């Protein structure tokens, strides 16, 4: 895609962490960019693999950064999975290895969340980033799977960078511990899987060719968008995997900017 | 190897769980087999991937089954790793994600075991089966690795069968969670790695051709022994992976018995 065609798109899909904000700090010009796009009558969706916070948590965080957003514009793995379960299985009994936010979101969609170590059997077990993950939970999950429970994961990211460059383990590493025992691959909903992108497009009633995805993570944001035929803007400055792809051929097909600020300067 | 040549071997290396005993129950005729081999002046070693119990714990367990064994005859991943560290690095500062037995064994070899969350940096972090494994330990390990600590694992088994067929997560699943984040393979000492076999042979002062390994797990006992040129007796009755290998070519080279009892009946 040519840079000059960016403003012909109807829908702008944004990654959040590493793109619109870094932890609790807004990216430079992020607020101005969102305001500008609204002025141009563009539809906006935020697509995040975050499996700890739900849309309401993130709405609050964005508001603190001066960015006003409707919860409907925020598409999280945390929120989507409850909706998916309802459409696929109806309202069911679930165990959740994950945050309070994830549990709340599952309950919000009408499911029953059983206690982690309840003897009652769950039909589905959901794995998200769980700071209370432990050996006994791992044991519970693999034994529930043996008894027939389906295991689903929010996202497959192994880790994300935290404060001062600290490594923060993510859902993908917990999933790896489980898969190593069960030998069954666990389906995940986050990027690069198509679910969140598709849900975003459907909620805007547009086709892939009318959207552009803007993100810093090549493996999730760019690869996921490309697999659906959505154009990508790749922010290279904060990318944790920029070098790995610098030489690839497909990279020539995507628009690259260093940062949200550079992107804003180019389109405004 | 031909079955009739078994008694020409000088050293009998036995796996423990699934071979000599199942949990806290001795295998039928296990005591008689060991007594018979001692009567034939055979040297005996027990080689186990157990990363929770050390040789003294296992000596007690065997004694309760009527099998008298010297601690020197029991070779565990738990005990070996402290010795390896001493030979390779001298006496060092270590963090241990594992059992009290593993920690005691490391200390026994002269190393300093730091508290799990001590700010003091460890030179090496050892991963064993840890029923107190948790998210914060996972985070500690990957961040210590980032700062330069070497991570070593006792064994790579993903799980083992517990009471009533329950799945008991093992060291290998915890290692998978870590490796998924660090992208660095973790070296392990248990079977099928050569370390414990080699240590067993050296302690008996024999060559591989003078030994036979008896075990139920093809992937660890048989594969490990074969890679060193040690003959194998494979106990198929309790094997968790018998079917997987039934058709393989190498299987024709190894002696198969259903159980320790059948093995005893054939050699006595």
From TrEMBL, chains A, B:
Record NCBIfam families: HAD-SF-IIA (TIGR01460)
Record-given protein name: HAD-superfamily hydrolase, subfamily IIA
GO CC, any one term: cytoplasm
Pfam families (UniProt xref): Hydrolase_6, Hydrolase_like
Domain of life from the UniProt record: Bacteria
Any one GO molecular function term: phosphatase activity
Keywords: Hydrolase
PANTHER family, A to Z: 4-NITROPHENYLPHOSPHATASE-RELATED (PTHR19288), HALOACID DEHALOGENASE-LIKE HYDROLASE DOMAIN-CONTAINING PROTEIN 2 (PTHR19288:SF46)
Listed SUPFAM superfamilies: HAD-like
Coiled coil: none
